[in-house]
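Appendix B. Raw example, untouched.
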Amino acid sequence: MKKEKRKILFIDPDSKTLQMLRRLFYHTKYNCFFVQNEKDAFKILKEYDIELLITEILIAERNDCGFLSKVKEKYPRIIREALSDYSNKDRLTKLVENNSIQLYLLKPWNNVELMNSIKRTFQLQDIMTNEELVNYIDKMESLPTIPAIYQKINEMLVKNESVEKITREVEKDQALTSKILKVANSAFYESQTGSIKQAIMIIGLNNVKNIVISNTLFHGNDINRAEILWEHAIITNKIAGYIYKKIMLKKIPSEYSSTGLLHDVGRAIIINYLKIENEKIDVLLNSNPVDLKMRMGYEKKLIGFDHAKIGGYLLKRWEIPLPLIEVALFHHDPLNEIVVNKEIVKIIYLANIIAWKVLKPNSKNNVIDERVIESLEIPKDKFYKKIDEFIESGLEY
C-alpha cells in the first residue's frame, strides 16, 4: 500500500511568505496547506489529518495564545511550531517554555535547513509513536501522571500570573521547595538564599517546572538509587552550564538551562516502576550504575526498550518541550542525524559522562566520543584541561 503523504499546515498573514513556502514545497513528498488566518486554519484542521502546524508568531500570540491553546486542546497530537524573525526570539522561547509550541524556526530561513528540520521532526515523531513502545508504556502499572502543579504553573504562565502567586502554589509542596532551594544555592547560580520566591526568580520558572517533573520521577521506594540519580542529574546540569559559560564562552539559552535535570528520567522510571527488571539488570551489572553501554544492552534485552526511549516517550506524552525530549532520547547518541536541537544534546552527552566520573572516579567505563567535542568546534586539549580544573575545584565556578 502506498504511504499517504504527511500533511503540513502553514499559517502566515503575509501572502508573500506563503507564496515562497508554496514554491518551496511544491515538488516535495509533503501535502501542504497555506492559510493567512485562524479561521481558515481551523477549517483545514477539521477536514484534514494535519500532523505539523507551522504558524507565524503574530498569529501564535494573538488573543494571549488563544489560537494555539485551542489547537492543543482539539488536536493534541499535532506538532506545533512557530515561525518569526530573530527580533522575536525571546517571545518564541516563551512559547516553548509554556508548552504552546514544541520548537521554532527563524526567518529568513535557509531552504535546506528548513527541509531538514521538518524531516527530523517527523522522524522523531515516528520514534515516539512506535506502536510497541506506546503499548508497553501504557500497560505499565502505576505509571506516573504529569504533576498537577506542573499543569497549574503552565496555566499561570499563559495567564501571565505574578511570581508571588506562583510562589504560593509551589510552597504547598515541601519536598519541591527543598529541591528548588538546593538548585538555586548550587554553584551554577552563585546564590545563597532561603527564600523560595527569591530562588524561583534566580533560577527561572522554566527550571522550576523541570524540577517539578524531576521531583515526581526521582522519588520512589528505592530512595538510595533515586538519590544517586538525582545527585547525578544536578551535577550533569551544573557541568552543562559550565561547558557553555567557561568553555564555549556563551550564555546558555534559557530553554536549555535545566535540561540536565531530566536527561535520565528513563532510569528513574525503570528503578521505580520496573523493579523486577531493574534488579535483574543490577545483578548482571554487579550493581555498577556507570557502565552505560552494558546497562542499555541489558535494558533492551529484558525490557525491550532502553531507558533513553522510555524517558523520551514519557516526556513526549507529558508534552514537555522538544529540547528536553531530545536530551532524554539521544543523550547517549548525540550524533544521530535525527536530532533537531543538536548543540544541547551533545553538551548533555558530555556532561552526563563527566558527571558519572565525578560520582564514580575509579570507574574506567564510558569513554567520551571525541567526535562530539570536535563537532562543537571545541579544541580537545582546552576541553579536557577546563574540565579537569572544574572537577579539581569541587565543581565551583
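End of appendix B.
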